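The protein record passed on for reference:
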Amino acid sequence: MKNTPQILTAIPQRRYRIGEFEAVVLGDIESKDSKHYIYVFALVREGENDPCLYVVLERTQHRDYHMVVMAEEQSKQFEASDELTDIDMFSQAAIDAAVRLFKLSDEEPYRVM
């Protein structure tokens, strides 16, 4: 996957299970790139090592927020409200994106950490 977050250090804040996928929400992120990440949601299919989806909340130079969804070779950026700086609101938005993209509506996401 291209253009993935270049994370140097981060602290896992939440972990979720969604069917055959595991997800982690990272906070306190230090990155090698010029972006200021508030949270990074990484979704990994069971048995694999590399995430198949990233959802990130980043703060721009102008103090605005963007949510970026990255899957395979594509990424889509959305304007985001200050509400998403709440980790639970961000986590739910990221889970919703994962459910839509991977057609997991029959699965019940649950928090494991």
Observations:
- Residues 7-103 form one domain.
